[in-house]
Amino acid sequence: MPARLSVEQVEFYERDGFLAPVRVASADEAAAWRRELEEAERNHGRLHYVSKAHLLLDFAYRLATHSSVLDTVSSIIGPDILLWDSTFIIKEPGDGKKVSWHQDFTYWGLDPDDVVSVWLALSQATIESGCMLMIPGSHKGPIAAHHDTRASDNILSRGQTIAEPIDESRARHVVLAPGELSLHHGRVWHSSSPNRSEDRRIAFNAQYLAPWVKQTVGDWDSALLVGGEDRYGHFEHERAASGAFVPEDVARQQSISARRAAYLRAGMG
To answer: Which residues make Cβ contacts (< 8 Å) with residue 219, sequence separation at least 6?
Structure first.
């Protein structure tokens, strides 16, 4: 199912800072992915927000490098692609968890902004289940001031929230069916509400960057080359998971994640 974006879709993304929906897999294929994820959870524990999942679970690596997913990414940043992070984002029904209005680039330390986030639905993402909300065109402005709420109902690590008032009447809901994805820019203002449905809201989220992007917060960073070549060498190249939570892979992911957490904390300072 090729998903190379049209000129009109790329223009929409560049104008609004996000694009959805883009169909990259059938409903049956998405259902099989969900079953595989939930089997991994039964065997290895909860996977919500585990960083760099592609280093721990070969299933996550297969999602991140699915040909249709990479087709959409290359339409935005070109054929040379580094995978910087991947996570499963799971809102349980009735858990009350939300995501406050924020911009991803606030703490990432990546420059320039040739970075795109993919949010791939493995279950229905509806208004009731707490799909994402985006403010069109907000990526064209600077990084807004954020403050940390540390609220217990906030999925974000520090409850980081845009400090200025937000006109939510401008927001658009990003409704996705299983097998569809959205793309969004790291500066676009976005949030999501709690899951009030009776099903889990499950997504695979990944960040891809062009190899000329640099980490500006620390003097080290890592990524996995998933398309083309890297002629810049700004990131230490990672090795994808060889199975499901293979001990050597776990040790490598823990080491990389600890180093990453240290420079991200520095960026938050």
So the answer is: none
